[in-house]
Amino acid sequence: MRGAGLAAAAALLVAGTATSAYAVADGITAQPGQYGYAARLTMTDIPNPDGSHHDSACSAALIAPSWLITAGHCFHDVDHQPVSGPVLYPTAATIGRVDADGPGPGGHDVAVVAAVQSPGHDIALAHLAEPVDDITPLALDPAAPHLGDVLRILGWGALRGDHPVPLSRLQSGQVQISGIADSTVAVRGRAPRWTTGACPFDSGAPYVRESDTGGPVLVAVESGGPSCPHPFDETASRIDVVHSWIQSTIAAPE
Q1: 246: which DSSP letter?
Q2: Torsion sign over Cα 189, 194, 196, 200
Q3: What span, in angstroms and rounded, lies between the C-alpha atoms of 28 and 67?
Q4: Are 100 and 221 in contact (CB under 8 A)?
Q5: CA 86, 237, 144: angle at the middle one, nearest 5?
Q6: E strands of the chain, at which residues?
Q7: How many whole angstroms separate alpha carbon 107 and alpha carbon 114?
Q8: Is there a smaller number of Cβ atoms within 10 Å at the N or the C end of the chain?
């Protein structure tokens, strides 16, 4: 799993860390105005079993004005078991700008107040303290994925697994579906490199199908994989198998 379980990596969240044009391991830097639905989750003061605390981060996507989707393991208890309910540590969502820590107007910084875990899947819905009404949410793909489908990953994760520091600038890259299971898909890097793929703190990153004839749709969210960058399979949780659950959850009275 990537993201909130990396207590040791949190010590590397220091000011002045150098970044690179390549991230989402071996991806490319998003430009202003792109991918407004992409979100970064920043978690602070996460409790450890020994009584200490750490910070962490995950990636996510806006799928309704008051809801983000991410990996289920991004919201957990002190024993790192995924949990639903009010968040157990401060969690802030940055939505609608490609430079989460950058100066200037644009985008939203909104608290996450609760999480809802999908039964049996590494997927969680994060409820925002206030709605985001000026960004078009990412649509959900109700159809089953196919081998060979090309998807775009969008995340705020590290450059490398051996230096796990989340970035403030949104990164993207293309992957291709290399395997399909009942509730997950396997994806491998495609562009700009064959090693393009998720890194620590990309947990929950959206995998999006793009087309010339319609808007982007969410196919899966990042769950876990080998140390990055790598040319092997990443595991992502399928959206189509929980589509009805997502729709009923975000439609429930608040």
Answers
A1: H
A2: positive
A3: 27
A4: no
A5: 125
A6: 28-29, 38-47, 53-64, 67-70, 85-86, 91-95, 108-117, 124-128, 139-140, 150-155, 171-180, 184-191, 206-209, 217-224, 234-238
A7: 21
A8: C
The Cα–Cα gap between 25 and 41 comes to 18
Full-model pTM:
0.90
Residue 195 CA: distances (Å) to CA of 198, 210, 226: 10, 20, 11
Q: Per-residue pLDDT tens for 182-224?
A: 999 999 999 999 999 999 999 999 999 998 888 999 999 999 9
Say if CB 40 and CB 109 are below 8 A apart. no
Q: What is the mean pLDDT of the chain?
A: 89
Tell me the DSSP string of 105-169: S-SEEEEEEEEEEPTTSS-EEEEESS---SSPPPEE--SPP-TT-EEEEEE---SBTTB----SB
In 3D space, the residue among 76, 118, 111 whose CA is nearest the CA of residue 250 turns out to be: 118
Taking the C-alpha atoms of residue 178 and residue 92, their distance in angstroms, rounded to an integer, is 33
Residue 106: both structure tokens together:
């644009």
pLDDT tens for residues 74-113? 999 999 999 999 999 999 999 999 998 875 567 999 999 9
User: Token pair of 69, please?
Assistant: 């989707």
